[in-house]
Amino acid sequence: MRAYLLCFFVLLLCTCVNAQSVPELIEALDDADTDGERYGILYDLTGELLESSRKEDRELAVNFSKQLLTTAKRLGDNKLIGPAAYTLALSYRNLRDERNTDKFMAEAVDYGMQAGAADLIMLAVAERNRLATKNRNYREAAAISQRALDYFTQNGDDRSLSALRAQLEREQAALQRRKREVEQETRELAGEVNRLQSEKEQLSGSNQQLQGTNRQLARENQVRNQQLAESAEELAARSEQLTQTQEEKAAVEKRVAETRREIKSLSREALEQKAIATDAREQLMEAELERQAAEIKAERQTVQLYAALGGGAALLLLALTFFSRFRVKQRSAKKLAEANDELEEARQQSDDLLKNILPVDIAEELKSTGKARARRFPEATVLFCDFVNFTKTAERLGAEALVQELDVCFKAFDKIMDRYPGVEKIKTIGDAYMAASGLSSRKSLPNDIIRAALDMQRFLKEEGEKREQLGLPFFSGRIGVHTGPVVAGVVGARKFAYDIWGDTVNVASRIESKSEPGRVNISESTYHLIKYKFRCTYRGKVEAKNKGLIDMYFVDQELVETA
Description:
Blueprint (H helix, E strand, L loop, with lengths): L1 H16 L4 H10 L3 H16 L4 H21 L2 H17 L3 H18 L2 H17 L3 H18 L2 H106 L4 H90 L2 H10 L5 E13 L2 H8 L1 H20 L4 E7 L2 E6 L9 H23 L7 E15 L5 E5 L1 H11 L6 E4 H7 L3 E11 L3 E11 L5
Parallel strand pairs: 4-6
Antiparallel strand pairs: 1-3, 1-4, 2-3, 4-5, 6-8, 7-8
Helix pairs in contact: 1-3, 2-3, 3-4, 3-5, 4-5, 5-6, 6-7, 7-8, 8-9, 9-10, 10-11, 12-13, 13-14
């Protein structure tokens, strides 16, 4: 009754202040006396700021939305907390902060389910689906819709149920389309790799052919140069012959002059006869000299023409050769760059997969050296979780449903471990889940792994309640935790795995077997490290197989620090 009165008061207050401006709302917020008044003013204030287009107002919307959520949690009313979380998520969406948008949308869904607010659940689930689909995380989108579908199935909301079923069908169809696209891209990538390999072989053959062409051109240039040298020598000989001919012409002209002097002393008749004979000889000599000069000039022009043609052809062939090699190198460089990009992307995917299998420092050491040395950690904390009556539950579920349920539980456990940076998942063995903390050079307390253990039991309890309402079998788990020295490392050359060894592992397994369903059982060594942070119940000395009597404690809950 008090919760409904409080909601009525808040809505009434929102109606009263709805017409106020942002400065007036901030002034009214300073004068508010109760958390109920603060909630109503903050709700209107964030609504005004969310409608603004200014970046400063969007940042103010985040700050006031945080105050709204804090105030709602102080009031302790889930009907107020859910809308406050949804408002904070919208503020982060205006700043394009997708991670915080999804985080507080998820919180709005949780509180909406606790308060039975179907409209709030639908709005928040739709936004989370939009973000997951935008990032192509179709599996996560389907899981979000499936969870809401399970909720509305249990609570009998037919309208929301039909809408969610339609949304889930669309997401499953999108997931199938994405699967087909990935398969098609894989086939195309394989074909592209084969094509690149073929082009590489063709380029190799073209390169060899080009080298043979270059050698042939070099030989032809050598022959051309030799021919040019021979032509130059022949031209020099012709020039020398022409010089000799000119000297002979000078001697003839000298004889002509002497003959002319002789003519003056001869008689007229002898002069005429001799003149006729002399003119004939001179004409013949001049004709012969002109013919030889013309032949020498023609031969010189022919040699120059051949030399010019040979040089031009050689230069043109050399230019074509260099241009062809430049184009081939340009295409080869482009293809090589594309191949390098593809190889870099494949290497990045390989690195991400390796870091998902191994701790980051172990993965880096394995990449750089090809092996990872074993390390000893004097104070590590080992966690074992095992399901109770696993064999009987497996017989009721069947093989496919059993694997699906195990996958749901182990994925949830993995997400829990990811929330605590110092906690490392080691492996799963059948229905057992193993994790550890303290596997680093930095000394730390096992508080985070105890929190993870409590979160695991909380998840199993909530999942069991949902499945029990549906009449389905469910898992309940025992968890055991022990602190002590271990040795960690990577073993094997193929399908290698990161693992830990030591008596601490065996003791942790024995403590898990002595736990109870739904409880977290710890050893005395772990208790002394966490007793100031968690409330525990002493169980006394419990007999453990091959380990004798061991002091054991149940972890009840984490102690909340008060200001």
